[in-house]
Amino acid sequence: MAGDVMSKGWLALLVLVEVGFGVFLRLIISFAKEEFTPVTDVMPKVIGMNP
């Protein structure tokens, strides 16, 4: 019984990691597509020193 619970826990963890990684990857791809500006233009906005 304990082993069954353990394997289910690992499966849930694996699914959670895969889903989280998929969302993270999709976020990066969408960000790269939308914000395709040079780093010099993005960095001041991120820091909060936009002109």
**SSE pattern, N- to C-terminal:** HH
Strand content: under 5%
Shape: elongated
- Give the helix proportion (percent range): over 70%
Per DSSP, the total helix count is 2
Total domains, how many? Answer: 1
**C-alpha end-to-end distance:** 63 Å
Largest sheet: none
* Whole-angstrom Rg: 19 Å
- Number of extended strands: 0
Low-confidence parts: none
Structural class: mainly alpha
Mean pLDDT value? 76
Provide structural commentary:
- There is one protein chain.
- The chain has helices at 2-34, 39-47.
- With 51 residues, the chain is mainly α.
What's the short version?
With 51 residues, the protein is mainly α.
Please describe the structure with a list of short key phrases separated by commas or semicolons.
single chain; 51 residues; mainly alpha; 2 helices
List the helices and strands and how they pair.
Elements: H1 2-34, H2 39-47
